[in-house]
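Hi everyone, sorry if this is the wrong subforum. Our group has a chain we'd like a structural model of before ordering constructs, and none of us has done structure prediction before. Sequence below.
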Amino acid sequence: MKAMNNIKYFVLVVLLLSSVQLAFVSCDDDPGADNYYTFTGEMASDYLHNREDQFSEFLGILGRSETKVLDLLSTYGTYTVFAPTNDAVDAYLAGRGLKSIDELSQKDCDTIAYTHIVKQAFYTTDLSDGTLPTSNMLDRYLTISVDTPDVSKGEEGTVIYYVNKSSRMIVRDDSVENGVVHTINSVINSANDMLPDLLEKDSTISLFVQAMQLTHMDDSLQRHVDETYSCSVDSVEEGVRYHTAVEYEWGFWLKTRFFKYTGFVEKDEVYNAHDIYTIDDLIAYAKAVYDEAYPEDAGLYDDDFTDRRNPLNRFVSYHFMPILGNYNELTPNDLLLTCNFNRRIWDAADWYETLLPYSVIKCSYPNGSQAGRYLNRRGVQSHADSRGVMVRGCKIFSPSESGSSDMSAINGVYHYIDDILVYSKDVQDVVFNERMRFDATVLSPDFMSAGTSEGHNARGRYARNEAGPNGGEYSDGSETGTRCTVFKPGYVRNWQFTDATFVSVRNRHLNYWSYEGDEIILLGRYNFTIRLPHVPAGTYELRLQTCLDFPSRGIIQVYLDDHPCGIPIDMRNGGNHASIGWQNDTSLGDEEAINAFDKAFHNNGWMKGPQSYGSSATNGSGEGYTPMRSTPNQLRRVYTTFYTDGQSDHYMHIKQVMDSETAEFAFDYIELVPRSVYDNEYYIEDKN
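Answer:
Right subforum, don't worry. Here is the predicted structure as tokens:
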């Protein structure tokens, strides 16, 4: 891996040349640990051994695991142990027709042991309705759902927690020296099905499954592990330490490259509410929608359900994304929303591509009376947006709202939705006639689907500090650094980059000057090309935001479809530099003067950062809030306008043009903005 060694060389150079380190707020591994009773000196293994009357059978299974999990639980680190009681193990054995754990195979013991342990500590105060942000030792994500106690049955407390819908925590948050133990009343079930097989087993979605099989979309959802991918042990286990701007970090390459999928599925009862009762009814519905959306194809492919231009094929394809989209990771989750988003003025949202060619889908998280995740929704909270448009969209059911079925497969997950999802003409022309802000970490499915039990997680996972492979302090005086995920050339879909380009996804931080708390770091003589997300036909403005005004930043030249977009931009300059001319709203005066400046600033190729996102908010409603709009180093660069027919690829190419081996680029997000938004004589684009 010569390329990896070259990268390690230049990041070490970065470390030697960098001398400035500033403090920043990040997500603590265990923010609630001080609130729990700690069994002094008791490791997780001791906790189980000291209660053998409850856990002797689980101990026996752990002791037989190939990696000696019990030894692992006796070492320092951070672990979450979901410990099934003896009664729980006995019930599991009985369900398999076994009399004792001695009849379990080695593989059985490994599977049970690895399923119940996560290599990071999670208390119930860390849990939300969704999945844990770190996978278990089996590289599977555990789903957490909640329920209210049934007082008539003598149940007490304020909330009941379940793991994978069926294993109830009967004792929770028992802190130990190396993590936390939750006692559960049944062995955690973990489906071994691929996503299409898991869907087929769900009797409540029979119509959708028929459509999936008729179109052979199930054949397109079978990939899991990329057998062509490999990475050297030192890159995977030792990683590299590097410095960017004010942070010191550890970068680790992925050991395994996964393919994952997410499905949004209507139950039969949803179709019935629209007078759809048979597969023929659904075929007719799809034809009506997609003949209007694609009139050039109307009637041409109706008899071939496997053709991607067939209406039913388009209908089913639009229900799947080529990423792992766990419920609480489809948008920023509650912790980030509380700290960084002003949800009084803007609904947090992310945009993704689907398996329908040249399509996009919007996932949003409104606050207030309609709180929850939605697809293709437009508005702010329960109100119309600044253009007077309000479209409710399809609500995505949370794990707690979805019943008792485990909806997580080996290679993906699916969610129920409460209305029919379509990429209709109205969706394209009305719902998507707005500014689309794509976080850099959604610009490849590989960023979304990366994640293992060792913490090699990319998009959506919160930062955790990582000690060096050999421990000890470093020349910068620190002992740890944030753990980030590094990607190899040739294994990032929609991206092309040279061997000399270091690409790392920085995990999320709180109160951090980057949209959604994360970003992609590129180092060295970086030279990379991104296929832009597919959007409906029209003329768009291309914008890019990054954090400016650091001496370690580079000078970049941006191209669109091989055409240069103006002159190179020196990212070492901030908004106060004479070449940019940023001014704070408070110094400009009234709204008329602010709008006049914004127009002139935009004509000069710049825009302020968004008003809706910032740092130091305390309650998600604007209190103590410092928006990006008020800071001179958080600017959007307006690069160019272009037309797309909605059926073609467009590429943004970014090249570092400084004579430097250590320059960096913090890639935050891009915006694709329809002409009706950026150039409209009746409306001024909102500041959010």
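For your construct planning: The first strand starts at residue 79 and ends at 84. The chain has a mean pLDDT of 86.
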